[in-house]
Amino acid sequence: MSVLSIVIPVYDDPAGIRATLESLLAQRTSHDYQIVVVDNDSTDRTPEVVQSYDDDRIFLRHETDIQSSYAARNTGIRNTDADTFAFVDADMTVPDDWLNSALREFETADADYMGCNVELTLPDDPTLAARYDHHTGFPVEGYLESQQFAPTCCLFVRREVFADVGLFDHRLESGGDKEFGNRVDDAGYTQHYAESVAMYHPTRNSIADLAAKDRRVGRGLCQLQRYHPARY
Q1: What pLDDT, on the 0 to 100 scale, is given for residue 205?
Q2: What is the side-by-side order of every strand in the sheet holding 58-62?
Q3: Parallel, antiparallel, or unpaired: how do β-strands 154-158 and 84-88 relate?
Q4: Mapping DSSP to helix (H, G, I), strand (E, B) and coil, where does residue 50 land?
Q5: Cα dihedral 19/25/26/28 (nearest 10)
Q6: How far apart are the C-alpha atoms of 210 and 59, rounded to whole Å?
Q7: Where are the beta strands (DSSP E) in the chain?
C-alpha cells in the first residue's frame, strides 16, 4: 500500500493533540505513514506543541479561513497526495498495532470506506456524567448498518472516493460525517465496520460538556435540513 495520511483537525487542545501524536508515533509498522495535523486557528499553544516534535512524519497545516473541523479535514486532504486517509480526532489514542490491524482489515475487506471500533475510556474517579457518556458509547456499527456512515474520528477512506463524491461539507457544525457517508453509500462504494480495530476516546466528564455536545449535534441536524433538504 502507498503512503497513508492520518489527518487530525485540532482547535485549542494542546494536551489532546500531544496524547494523540504520542500514540500514533509509537506504531509498530512497516507501512509508510504521515500525520497531517490541521490547526483550526487555535488561540493557545496547540500549534507550538505540534511543532515541538522533531519527526519528519508530522506535518502541521493551518485552516484559518473557516472555523469548522470539516474544513480542517478538507485542508488536510488537499495538502497530501496520499492514496488512503485515516481520520482521527485530537485527544484520541490507539494501540501500537492499530495501523497494521486497520490496514490489514481495510485491504482484506476490499473496502473503500471503513469505520473502526471506538471504546470510551473512563477517568480513575468517574463522574456521573462520565458514566453516562461511557454507557451510551460510540455505536459505530449501528451507524453504518442503519444510517450508512461512520464518525470522522475513526474513519478510513480511499482518495478515489473523495475525487468522485467530493470532500466534507464544511458548512456543517455537526453531521458532516453522516452527510459524507450517505454520499459514499449512494455512489455504491463498499462500506465496512472493523470491529477488531480499536481506538480510544476519553469520556466527557461534566454535564456542561454533554450539553455542549448535544447543542452542537442539534445545530448540525438543523443545518443538514437547511443545506440538504432533499435528504434530511
Answers
A1: 66
A2: 58-62, 33-39, 4-10, 84-88, 154-158, 113-121, 191-202
A3: antiparallel
A4: helix
A5: 150
A6: 32
A7: 4-10, 33-39, 58-62, 84-88, 113-121, 154-158, 191-202
Q: Model pTM? A: 0.94
Average pLDDT for runs of 10 along the chain of length 232: 88 97 96 97 98 97 97 97 96 97 97 96 78 79 98 98 98 96 98 97 80 84 94 94
Report the amino acid identity of residue 121.
T
The CA radius of gyration of the chain, in Å to the nearest whole number, is: 17
Residue 213 C-beta-side C-alpha neighbours within 13 Å: 10
Residue appearing with cell numbers 508530522: 58
> Distance between CA 230 and CA 32 in Å, rounded?
41
| Predicted local confidence at residue 193, as pLDDT | 98
Alpha carbon distance 138, 116 (integer Å) = 10
**What distance in Å separates the CA atoms of residue 122 and residue 9, rounded to the nearest whole number?**
23
Please state, in angstroms and rounded to a whole number, the distance separating the CA atoms of residues 23 and 93. Answer: 6
Return the pLDDT at 218: 87
On whether the CB atoms of residues 190 and 113 are closer than 8 A, the answer is yes
Residue ranges in 52-139 assigned as alpha helix (H): 69-78, 98-108, 128-136
